[in-house]
């Protein structure tokens, strides 16, 4: 090999260089192998669990009874195929479905139980496996049908109270059981209980529909004919496009359970149950949950707190968005001994309908609770009926009845106030503290306040009397205008800003006139240029002898 001067490389030098490069490559490879051994290998890709059709486990699905005795001569031969059965009287469809769940739960991977189109007759609970909350594998078993109207599971016989059609295994364990981390899915099928034609006032069946624990997902599931459609426990379960109808109670936060909240009900129909769309036991409560585009009603109650001393807040920090409280017989939200705290109702509406009324139960109000604090009613929720079919004349006390009401907001409260203005029912009846309950109406805003001694009449200028209001007295500053009449102790909406009708003295008033409390009749206004502080400006003409004038409140001119 040759080149320029000084560039000649000998054979020996080439050999030495070759051996050096080879040694370097071997060292690099060894180092890389050592690094690979020290680094954790990436997790293998997750494998979906297997799917198993209940037809493959021997289900018939023709809607008729098929006891195991039709196929097996004795219990021993039946248990070779279905180890979980206890009697030849048990149904083949139940044995197949429960057997498929157990088979997949033993794989260590979970899987999906498929329910092909058909009508399957069952006579026992379907129990889903417990999961260890610290198990990364999550041995989940799902039950998936071919459609809400295609795959039907029915329980014609009632096994009695405390039993369910489908339940999480941990529902019969201790309340602080660590195996209650369920995380399962039921989808695209329907469950029919023993009394699908039950009517209000009739005794309900004993068994429940689906008993949840944590992180359940129900998707396009129909549940009807049970004591409770869905019995809710623990946290983070979701119901999406489900139908919980024709039960005694649609969804139940039951006794003996603790709900940790954060549930989601989306586009779910809970109407047409014989007692309530939702009911809550005294020791339980609904908190931090969302109800979006749900349908309540066509029942005596939409949301009911059961009788008894409350151990938790009935409704706290929940969101109700675009929900209908429609055609309720006895009221929308009912809990005379319960608390309602920090909830938001946006775009909701409702109505009363006596066809769904329980006899001998009063229609005290649309919303009846012991304590109403820091709730917000906005959009259609404050309409409290559409003005035509709200049947407010049926209300015995008021639209909203509470022992105390503090810090609530009623946006778009026009129809709520109109109930009292039209003589149908007072907006609020509060027996105890009533403070800082703001409202926004179409042309004005203000606060619901309790009337003091002597009461007030609609159109009165009023003054503060500690936490109450009374008719304006001479030489006192006006605080607002009463929009409805109320006796002493009644609740009156007091407008403090905006345009309102106000009572006037006899003289005529021209539009644009500055108005003051009337001389000798201080709760009315007149156009005199007296020493009284201005309270507003007339926005229309009012002839002599008329009783009222429309006034733009200007209390800041005082």
UniProtKB/TrEMBL annotation:
<dbReference type="InterPro" id="IPR012334">
    <property type="entry name" value="Pectin_lyas_fold"/>
</dbReference>
<keyword id="KW-0732">Signal</keyword>
<feature type="compositionally biased region" description="Basic and acidic residues">
    <location>
        <begin position="54"/>
        <end position="68"/>
    </location>
</feature>
<dbReference type="InterPro" id="IPR011050">
    <property type="entry name" value="Pectin_lyase_fold/virulence"/>
</dbReference>
<feature type="region of interest" description="Disordered">
    <location>
        <begin position="31"/>
        <end position="68"/>
    </location>
</feature>
<feature type="signal peptide">
    <location>
        <begin position="1"/>
        <end position="22"/>
    </location>
</feature>
<protein>
    <submittedName>
        <fullName>DUF2190 family protein</fullName>
    </submittedName>
</protein>
